Each structure stands twice: as C-alpha cells, then as structure tokens.
C-alpha cells in the first residue's frame, strides 16, 4: 500500500512538468507556422509586384512596335502577367480574332450578302494602332471627303461578290447632296468604266440636308428620309455601296426602301467595318485558352 502511494505521488510530481513541455512545444510550432505563413505572404506580394512590373514593361515594349506581327507575342505575355491595358491593345492588334466576320470575306447581314475591305477604328483608339491600321483609317477619312476613291479596295470587294454588268450600284444617301456626289462620284465612275457594275448615282436625289449620323450623339433619332428614288429603279438588281458598316441599321433601312421602289438587293459592299471592342474578360479568356493549349501540346510532345 505504501509502495503504491509512493508511486502515485511520484507520478503526480511529474505531471506539471509534462504539461509545461507540451505547452512550449505547441507555442514553438505556432511561431514556426506563423513565420512560414508570413514568409509566404511576403513572397506572394513580392511576386505580384514583379509580375505587374513585367506586364507593364511587356505592354510598353509591344506598343513601341509598328507592325502587328511584332506586337502579338509580348501582348499575350503582358495579359498573362495581368497588365490592365494589354487586353485593349491586343484586341486592336488582332481584331480578326474577336469578330465573327473577316475583311474581304463574304458574310450575310440578314438576307443581304456583304463584304468589306478592312476595319475602321474610332479616333479614341488611334494612338494604339499599328502603321497599316492607321493608313487604312486615313483612307476611310479620305474617301469620306472625296479625296480618294479607294478603287483598289472596292474592286477586290466586287470581285468577291461576283457581280456583273446587269447589276446597278446604289450608293448610300448622305446628309447633303454635295457630300453625296463628292464621296461617290469617283468610285461610281470607276466601277462603271471597268465593267464591274452600272452606276446608279443619279437614281436617287437628295432633297434636303440633315444632320450627319457619324457626328451625332443620337444616331437613331436622325430622320434619314432626305431623298427621293427614281422610278427607273423598278426591276433593277442592285448592290448597295457605302463607306462604313457599323450597326447595319442604315443598310437595312436603305435596302427596304430600294425594295419598295421595285429593286432587288443582291448585296452590299463597304470600304470598312467599325470594329466592336470586346470586353477585357473575353480577351483574357481567349489568350489564356490559347496559352494553355500550347502548354498542353508541348507537354504531349515531350511525353
């Protein structure tokens, strides 16, 4: 009995010591874990800082190039690095990746076969464009002002549309009669002289001036019925010619009026199509998808 009591007391003496050691061990583990977590957070912040720095440098590096082929790769890397400006520049550099239709390829707008020569970009994007894009946008401005007939672009478009001399080209009415003839007289003469189509330049008459849709803040509220159509349109097969395709509302309205006059609309030809800017999320998704597909392909090749 005495021996058992002694053992009990002996063991009781050592219990407080064991608790103290366990507590010290637990505190040490807590300190180590907290230190590791803090180190991981610091490294993550440091990595994010240099990731943003690299993305900024890559975006600036790409913007310094004048050719689209030179911009594409560094912009992809800048997007992966998280640069906020890279998606905009990438979309402008590679517009064909974000549009359902392509330049100089036939597509349907409603029931109308259409073709356009290139992309037009609004003025707010001009500082981001490559040299060839700036040159084409300037062509669009020159055509609007009657300084350039852009025959090389329209001739390619009409060849794709497969028109013949029985087709009559009908030109989109402008805000004033002077602007209408200044803009379309040159290309109308070229198309008829070279046998692409007949000119229907004089088959409409601008009866009054109206506000220009391209400079108006409320395009949909402008009354575009400022012209009269000739009775000679009845029975004619026509192709609509215009400088710019944006929403397509003017095209559909004009086509409807031509058909009411007895014409049959065979197609539409445009010098340019206004590029619709995609969302940054859409750009990032496409770039990441292509990037991951490349990595998977390389991995498969290594195996």
From TrEMBL:
Domain Phosphoribosyltransferase: 209-284
Gene3D superfamilies, alphabetized: 3.40.50.2020
Keyword terms, alphabetized: Glycosyltransferase, Membrane, Transferase, Transmembrane, Transmembrane helix
Statement: the UniProt record of this protein carries the keyword Glycosyltransferase: yes
MF GO annotations: glycosyltransferase activity
InterPro entries: PRTase-like, PRTase_dom
The species this protein was found in: Bacteroides uniformis
TM annotation in the entry: 30-50
Full protein name: Phosphoribosyltransferase
Keyword Manganese: no
A Pfam family assignment: Pribosyltran
